[in-house]
Fold each of these.
Amino acid sequence: MSDITPELVRHLASLSRIDLHDEEVTSLTSELGQIVESIAKVQEVATDDVVATSHPIPLQNVSRPDEVGETLTQEQALSNAPDSADGRFRVPAILGGEQ
Amino acid sequence: MSGIVGLTAAQLAERLGAGEVSSVEATSAHLDRIAAVDGDVNAFLHVSDHALEVARSIDDRRAAGEELGPLAGVPLAIKDVLVTTDMPSTSGSRILEGYMSPYDATVVARSRAAGLVPLGKTNMDEFAMGSSTEHSAFGPTRNPWDLSRIPGGSGGGSAAAVAAFEAPLALGSDTGGSIRQPAHVTGTVGVKPTYGAVSRYGSIALASSLDQVGPVSRTVLDAGLLQDIVQGHDRFDSTSLTTQWPSMAEAAREGARGDVLDGLRVGIVRQLGGEGFQAGVRQRFTETVEMLQAAGAEVVEVDAPHFEYAVAAYYLILPAEASSNLAKFDSVRFGLRVEPAGATSEQMMSATREAGFGPEVKRRIILGTYALSSGYYAAYYGSAQKVRTLIQRDFSAAFAQVDVLVSPTAPTTAFPLGERVNDPLAMYLNDVTTIPANLAGIPGISVPIGLAPEDSLPVGLQIMAPAYRDDRLYRVGAAVEALVENALGGTLISRAPALGGAR
Amino acid sequence: MAADKLMDYDAALELFEPVLGFEVHVELGTKTKMFSHAPNVFGSEPNTNVTPVCLGLPGSLPVVNEQAVRYSISLGLALGCQIAASSRFARKNYFYPDNPKNYQISQYDEPIAFEGSVEIELPDGSLRTIPIERAHMEEDAGKLTHLGGSGGRIQGASSSLVDYNRAGVPLVEIVTHPIFGTEALAPEVGRAYVGAIRDIVLSLGISEAKMERGNLRCDANVSLRPRGQEKLGTRTETKNVNSLRSVERAVRYEIQRQAAILAEGGTITQETRHWHEDTGVTSSGRPKSDADDYRYFPEPDLLPVVPSAELVEQLRSELPEQPLARRRRLKADWGFTDLEFQDVANGGLVDVVEATIAAGSSPAAARKWWTGEISRRANADGVEVTEVIQPERVAEIAALVEAGTLTDKLARQVLEGVIAGEGTAQEVVDARGLAVVSDDGALIAAVDEALAAQPDVLAKIRDGKVQAAGAIIGSVMKAMRGQADAARVRELVLERAAAE
């Protein structure tokens, strides 16, 4: 019994900016349902007394001195840009026409 | 395999050093081999236009009397997950088709500095998500042992290139087995070093806390020679260790000639075998363990009770981190852009990501987004991080009893192309043996141990050591390699079928 | 955009209690960015202060700037916060074109500093304590330029351009707990609080803190609750509040706007609003569909920051005196009235006045020079006061006045000479021959001459009409070309008039 619904898949797709087709929503809903069911078992042993590990090798205080290093040129920075103008990356309107 | 391409990296390096072979000759031989067989294998996404030029400069430097590194002039294949300034870097994805990085990955820069000659970029599952390379946007790689079968993944291209003698060495990356499992199914050697031993800078991130770059080769010594070049601290990667590493090549040489197996305490993990493992895989594994015992190793069974939760934890942590790591592919600064007429920036991003990502990538991004969502975080991502702690404890307990742990590298030999591509769960279970090492950050190696009788396909032995003890893997790995070679009366890879041009 | 309906401010306060909250972002003045070695400088050509990290290029990884961590700890300490024994970074996931990785590296459940308080002073001299919830480190976003709309606004724009020079600049975000009980003074409290943060940051020397440049940015949260209600009302978050005056105006506006809606039985939408400096109104921002779910998780590319007790104690010992405490101390030391001190403080002149006094000037003279002539010149030339003249030179001039060598009028000429680079005050006095004539002989001669020339005035003085002496004094001063002490001249006039 999984709580993966087509609406949830659509919401997750919107959060992750993927414009899924309807067929993809359908197949993902069922696939994710199965996957989630099988991975939910982590909860069985994840008790309160167990600390979480986010880094496999524990290190701390890794930092660098505040010294300027090599930078990219503007040409390098823009070299892969799908669109640019005036030394900047160009994107279409951020707000839709109706707003 | 005869001729230059049949040489191991160590043998080739020796001849280069002795002036018996030039780097141009070695590079040409491999480029010819690629031209002859890669139409069948499809290990390469891009073959370098500069390889001969680089080889010539190495020859010139050698001729000028310059002191060069041990692998100078040896060709190298590079997994497409590693960014390179002179070749496109796509990570197997349509969304990065043609992407030219303005900088080299640290491992690539170190390889260049050591005089290795980049031959090209190897195929992989898109963004390293997969165990078969079938999720590459540019078509699957085929296993040189049987072209109808998968070469493993995600680094199937690197393993196949090495197995097909298209390159003596390759660089790979291993997030849940992407170096070791392809080595297993292609009869080659692959090493996942200790997390942080090799820089991740310039490795297109899949799951930051699991990814590790490592060597792919046909012998343990060759892998050690390459790890010696790429390992060590990198100030551009915060998780890079400052450890002064011993020479892995030296460890491999010791292992090959010495008696390291005598008195070695070897643990068999009860949870990494048995049911679900192919009979021929089990058989070769058991025989190898018996050889180890015969060589003086003390073999015990150890229990790792939480390993059964490893795959579940992995498929929460990986998608979660990946969903965030892959957010940068939005068509603003680089990569594919799909811009429907009148689209807003947001619509452009959504259309681009819909068109640019394959089904497995979308699946994992959606899954990871779910695992991190408010309301689910504690139950999923949080719990998975706790399982990680439990698995580390299992390893600690095991390594208190034994020096190394062993298992079959994967449950089965190479499966047929297409068999599991539409069954994500079955595909995920393929990583059951390799995932625990990534969750715990410990090093692992896969060494070929023979062919499964039922399908005559390669089987690998996975050896795992405690964190920081990569040298132990090389020592034991080389010893196992020597035992197997002795038993077979030659290397396993020499039994690989001839391909294309060599027929 | 229809104009918002506003309720009269006093009426609004009668019905509702305002509750405030502030999120102040401080850009740190480090040499490099938070996670990359790209220079942290303002005003460069677009996309030149960038590395693969700043652009979020594939394969790039962040590395923490140790100086930014130290600055953040110092700021935390100055805010009276506890410094975390262990602190870590987290990813805040949201898509936006100015956010190069589409996640911002920030801090979530383990900020570097938490639970502090800031004392502020209101215009009436009363003190209040603002509770601080946390201060955390994060990175700034790039800068968007909108094309095709009116006045560079995002509304109606056909496309936008992105410059990532600012992407990755270190920020500390300071978050308050809800601030209760401000009542009608809410706008003043807002202004004083942000001003206090600015002063603290400046005193630490960790940021230029120029609001107009975005070094210091304030998001003001305002909610209203009906009198007698326990539950907090829905809040709005007003962004783009880029001056102290705007903080005050925006808070006031939101109180009036929300009160009008609530009084009519409407509900407040929880949203981001934008302050418009030119029109003095707030407008609804883009409702962020993702805002409810940033999917925070620990940043796997970075390790925990675990400040040692030694480091924290060292930074604590290096903290400057708190600006408010310092101001109160100086005001008492200098004997200024509230108004006098405000003149100095609001002009940003506390440091130069202090330095001038330290160089020997009286507090009154230092205040007069800096708030008067020097500020006028600085404003006229559009430069900082410190670029006009050094405090030591001002003290020299004040000393010459004190000693009677210069009158105020002469002193202004000396100031001009010093500013013009003619040397020290004494050198200008000498070169221009500006000293007061203190030789009584010469003065007496001039007085006698003037009395002789105006016998009618002399007669009036002798009749006891002392104020008539003014005319004589004027003549004498004119004869002396101003280089006489008017008080002494007056004495002499009365003396000589009586003597004849």
Amino acid sequence: MSAVAVERPPVEAGGAAPVGPVTQRRVALSEWTKLRSVRSTRWSLFVMLLLIIGFGILACVVFESRWPHLGADERHHFHPLRANLAGVNFAQLAIGVLGVLAITAEYSTGMIRATFSAVPKRLPVLWGKAVVFGAVAFAVSLPAVFIVFFIGQAILSGQHINIGISHPGVVRALFGAALYLTVMGLFGLGLGAILRSTAGGIAALAGIVFVLPPIVGLLPSSVTNSIDPYLPSNAGGAIWTINPDSGTLAPWAGLAVFAAYAAVALAIAAVLLKRRDT
Amino acid sequence: MIEVTNVTKRYGEKVAVSDLTFEVRPGIVTGFLGPNGSGKSTTMRLILGLDAPNAGRTLVNGKPYRDHDSPLHEAGALLEARSVHTGRSARNHLLALAQTHGIGRRRVDELIESVGLREVAGKRAGGFSLGMGQRLGIASALLGDPRTVMFDEPVNGLDPEGIQWVRKLLQRLASEGRTVFVSSHLMSEMALTAEHLIVIGRGKLIADMGVEEFVASASKHSVRVRSPQLERLVELVAGPEVSVSAVAPSVVEVRGLSSEQVGTIAAEHGIVLYELSTQQASLEEAFMELTRDSLEFHVEDRPKAEPNEVLT
């Protein structure tokens, strides 16, 4: 190679590149490229996996080793699936934050201007993000809950307190946990798109999931009992439980209510997205 | 082709663009000139549909930008504020934009090569220098082989070699028959690249004319004279329409007469001239002249305006 600086070829504004119309499918492909090409995606998904599998195994190990020392009351309250899926409670924040970031990072970096210049109709961007992000969230969380189920139940079998995959409701609950995490991610996406701020989106999500239920619990019990089942996390929780507490919604009804929250958030986001300046 | 018709844009109380009307024609470089904060970037965002006007409308190649099937093929824009996710590589940034229009990886790689980002294409854009960011923005703008290009302050942060490159690029894009609309607050930059000028101040149109016409209309010509017999000459040219100012020892500038007139007078009286030249105001001076007028007009127009508001 010579040391002489190589003359750059002139910029070809034309060239062989065919340019096609913007379609929903193309925007979704673009959103997939965006999602896979930033570190926060890999980190959040990795943390989510770690939380689901790690906490699930930890809870099972603790119960298995403590079982001979537990009293009758504690044994009565123990449920092999609930302990096994303990990590979902933590993983929901990781996936929700990732959902928020999927849109707010575009606002904080200015990328949104490039995005909306390419897709000025805007809504295909929101739907593309929702479809791609939902598919990724489900594809990552489903294997995670099945893996932790088999490992966790193998650990619990040491004390014969495990349940099998064929136990009524187990498969539904495992799919349900993955669906729950997916909807939580989409809820985060909707909140992020409404608030356009990472901090605001995460605060809103954490507030609704973690702060709202105890606040409602402070109300008179007659009021609490009628509101409680309809809170997003409680409604959604029904789908990944097989021994529900009294006063919770039926599994699929609960998931539908939770999904409705996410759908409303995305619908509000869609209206605002069309109207607002960038 | 860009058509801006009676566009007004307010942000809260602040009027960013006020009843602005102009056209940008294909085949030439049109400069968009105005001081910082005069509404250039806002106008460009309105043309792209990123912001919605309160009144009026903008058309790109005959349609509102958002109504085109392949927007990036109609217009490509380099916006002043950086529009790149800092955590994504340049290549993936361009690829994501390209995919919305079914543009392939080959085109992305070609552009990366031609804007000179090959060595850093895999690096996170957040670590880019201002100049590298501009090059990436220009690559984004050209992805869709656009019929209209809009560059907001494209030479900001570029080194001299990069500035040359942008000038040539703009002129070549225009020579290919594209509409080229490029903003700057630097008049000298416009003098070198633009053929036509749209000048705005405080969101209002000040001038819409050719560069030469702009300079001519805004400037008072003067004649620079250097002579060992200046005192004599000054007496001879004196008149009610003529003013003479000393600019250096044995050099004066005469206003109100052409160089032909001064030279003829000197010859008639046998005065020796060492130098006789027409001085034209620079584009900067022409621009200052015009925008000052617009600001004064503005003060009269809005008597309640705060003094410091007028100065910005």
